[in-house]
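Re: that backbone. Tokens:
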């Protein structure tokens, strides 16, 4: 279930930083992105902190971003 505290928990886990290693960090606003784009899937391994810019980029070429962020979150 998506709750405000879950959002903050994910941001805290990710050190309040965009997790895209190619991020230029131009935007301070952080979003919690659903890696598989399923808003009902709120498991921690499906959520990642992105800046507003990286979150917007993830709306294009979704198959690429799903694979990219799944690999990133698995470490």
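Recovered sequence:
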């Amino acid at each position: 279930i998506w709750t405000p505290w879950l959002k903050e928990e994910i941001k805290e886990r990710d050190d309040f930083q965009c997790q895209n290693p190619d991020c230029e960090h131009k935007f301070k606003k952080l979003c919690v992105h659903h890696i598989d784009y399923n808003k009902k899937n709120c498991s921690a391994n499906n959520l990642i902190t992105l800046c507003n810019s990286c979150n917007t980029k993830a709306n294009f070429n979704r198959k690429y971003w799903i694979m990219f962020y799944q690999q990133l979150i698995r470490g």
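DSSP finds three helices and two strands in the chain. The two ends are 24 Å apart (CA to CA).
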